[in-house]
């Protein structure tokens, strides 16, 4: 809302990822698009590559001349072609919605949108970025940033929630110290999980690009089958969403590695293919997680490891 308010006027065109391919529905004509009177355009998208089609996107930008280009998606196993497309953006402002990958960006992995051509990076602080519920806007262009920031108070936000600010500060401190190793471990686990799922005859999207370079592994089933799989997995104490997006960030924070990803993949394969009763698989899931109760990549762990360390 803040970005659209500061960077668009009624009648402008905005370009983002198609809704069916993980684009944010808040930008759509039924939501903020209608509120701000902007026209929604959508990137040409390759379902096989699970990414924006940069060549076709540049043609669309040249023809339609959007005023705002928004990268980022809720389905984002691979970096978006920010550098290539932003170079052809003309007068459009490029923004990156890093809600799902912000923790990986903070760790210096995945991609670097503010140095690849975007003026703003926005995102959630509670997904791969392992902090409190909320959002953040960062920028490297003072003029663009001020256009967004000047109307934040009191038009969009008002009271400061100090408890959230304190929690956010602690998370930032943790990422300064552990961010790179955390992000690398998350991505390593995604790649291990995807490979192991395929070995257990589970359909995974993005084969041509190595399945994943983020925290996400996307299963390759239609919506009806995905919902069925999600319910079956939940009965076995494994939680994914009903679109069959799997994220490795939480299990990584709890200390799991590639060996556990192989175990998870085998359990999921049994559930998806219906080879074991759910109570048998549920016990196996409980057995797997019993030794992973203490969060890693946190300042508390560092303090406990060093008797002289202080929080």
Question: Top keywords for this entry?
Answer:
2 domains; two-stranded antiparallel sheet; 14 helices; alpha/beta; six-stranded mixed sheet; Aspartate Aminotransferase, domain 1; globular; 311 residues; Aspartate Aminotransferase, domain 2
Give a structural overview:
- With 311 residues, the chain is α/β, with parallel strands linked by helices.
- It folds into 2 domains: 2-158, Type I PLP-dependent aspartate aminotransferase-like (Major domain) (Aspartate Aminotransferase, domain 2); 178-289, Alpha-Beta Complex (Aspartate Aminotransferase, domain 1).
- 45% of the residues lie in helices and 14% in strands.
- The protein is built from 14 helices and 10 strands.
- The protein has helices at 2-7, 32-36, 54-64, 82-86, 102-106, 113-116, 142-149, 152-156, 162-199, 223-235, 249-253, 258-272, 278-289, 299-305, and strands at residues 13-16, 39-42, 45-46, 51-52, 68-71, 93-97, 120-126, 130-139, 216-218, 245-247.
- The strands form 3 sheets. It has a 6-stranded mixed sheet. Strands 3-4 form a two-stranded antiparallel sheet. A two-stranded antiparallel sheet has the order 9-10.
- Strand 1 (13-16), helix 2 (32-36) and strand 2 (39-42) form a beta-alpha-beta unit.
- Helix 9 packs across helix 12 (258-272) and helix 12 runs antiparallel to helix 13.
- It is globular and about 60 Å long.
